[in-house]
Automatic annotation (TrEMBL):
<dbReference type="Pfam" id="PF14534">
    <property type="entry name" value="DUF4440"/>
</dbReference>
<feature type="domain" description="DUF4440">
    <location>
        <begin position="34"/>
        <end position="139"/>
    </location>
</feature>
<dbReference type="InterPro" id="IPR027843">
    <property type="entry name" value="DUF4440"/>
</dbReference>
<protein>
    <submittedName>
        <fullName>Nuclear transport factor 2 family protein</fullName>
    </submittedName>
</protein>
<dbReference type="InterPro" id="IPR032710">
    <property type="entry name" value="NTF2-like_dom_sf"/>
</dbReference>
């Protein structure tokens, strides 16, 4: 009887979606905090602060509808050109769908983004790769569409 209960218990944990198992993970909580900080910075119109979690490297990759942008500064410049003011930026919200650990210091995060704007709303999906560098989670690649 104990063996059957053990199998049921193990089976119930195996049936939990990865999101529920990740909910208690300190890395996932830190990543959620990073993304919450990004949306708060965006909603204040502060692109510089929004970009802080991005890897400050020429190897940063941003993939958008116009192709690939490499590097932190070119990615910031792209955001400034695409969203030149508060009306274009609107209010950003994220819906975080999946957290997939790829290594001890690397996560893939899949989600949806939504901009509520007076000039027309925008929305899409994103996948970001984050790597823990010097104890901080950094976005090393971003594909937003």
């Amino acid at each position: 009887m104990r063996f059957v209960l053990y199998l049921i218990l193990i089976g119930s944990f195996a049936a939990l979606p990865s999101r529920q198992l990740c909910a208690q993970n300190p890395d996932v909580q830190q990543i959620k905090s990073v993304l919450a900080g990004q949306s708060a910075a965006w909603n204040k119109g502060d692109l510089q602060a929004f970009m802080q979690p991005y890897w400050h490297s020429d190897s940063l990759m941003f993939v958008g509808k116009d192709g690939v942008t490499y590097g932190w500064q070119p990615t910031l410049d792209r955001y400034k050109k695409t969203y030149p003011g508060k009306a274009a930026m609107g209010q950003l919200t994220f819906n975080l769908l999946e957290f997939k650990p790829l290594a001890a210091d690397v996560y893939l995060v899949i989600g949806k983004w939504h901009l509520k704007r007076t000039i027309g709303n925008l929305q899409g999906h994103f996948s970001i790769l984050l790597r823990k560098i010097d104890g901080e989670w950094n976005i090393i690649a971003d594909h937003s569409s």
